[in-house]
Amino acid sequence: MKSMKKFIFLMPFILFFIQSIAQKVANYSIGKGGTAEYEEFSFWVKANKRADIDYTYGKDWKNIKLVCLGKDVLNGDECFKVKFPNNKVLYILPKGKDLIVSDLDGKYKKYFSWHYEGPTNGGGTFCEPCAEDENEAMKLIKLYYMIK
């Protein structure tokens, strides 16, 4: 009886811990890794909630944290906005299996594809939180980022 009371008392903490470590990430990139043209957006979901957005770029893999500004519309298309530390805002539009990333006036407009992170031909490391494929990645984007 005493151990059952202890278990019931600890259950909320156990559930919170399990949820806090449950995470997924949808990575979308353009260009070849390790080159000046490389860009990647990583959209994190933690404990079934929208979480961090990382922007990685260049041959040195510089990383910046972005802020999600929520759902919006750009030229009639549903999208969501992200803000950089320098206050630059980009619009992210899911299209098919890709993301179109654009600024308001269209001077910056690029198409990003799902980025596979894991072993290739038996080599490399497995990415536990990474979306398994482009379908799961797009599902994460639509469920957690295409919201207010």
Output the radius of gyration: 18 Å
Task: Specify the number of helices.
Answer: 2
Return the structural class: alpha+beta
Helix share, percent: 10-25%
Multimeric organization? single chain
Separation of the first and last Cα atoms: 46 Å
Largest sheet: spatial strand order: 1-2-3-4-5-6-7-8
**Major sheet: size, sense and barrel closure?**
8 strands, antiparallel, barrel
Based on Cα principal axes, name the global outline: globular
- What is the ordering of alpha helices and beta strands? HEEEEEEEEH
Note the beta-strand portion.
35-45%
Poorly predicted sequence stretches spanning 5 or more consecutive residues: 13-20
Number of strands: 8
Mean pLDDT: 87
Summarize the structure.
The chain is of the alpha+beta class. The protein contains 2 helices and 8 strands, in the order H-E-E-E-E-E-E-E-E-H. It has an 8-stranded antiparallel β-barrel with strand order 1-2-3-4-5-6-7-8.
